[in-house]
Amino acid sequence: MDGLSPDLGIGEREAIALALEVAADFVILDDQQGRRVAHEKGLLATGTLGILIEARERGMIPSVRCELDRLIEAGMWIDEAFYHRILQEFGE
Fold first, then answer.
1. Entry pTM
2. The predicted structure's pLDDT at residue 6
């Protein structure tokens, strides 16, 4: 994990290091600083919400609202304005 910011959590550092090691197409990180570092290392990065949006766009899930609400119930913080913007985008 040489060259990765010590300010990142161990999970973010491990995910980035593994993505680099296996030449992954992208890495999934919810931490904004982790995504910034991943981009600096030449990796594409997305978060959990990006995965949900992609799944909804591809018709893999029927409703993004249900999945967002489940994440919130599980303890994930989602900005309220962003939540409503996503729902509006998909007409939910």
1. 0.77
2. 76
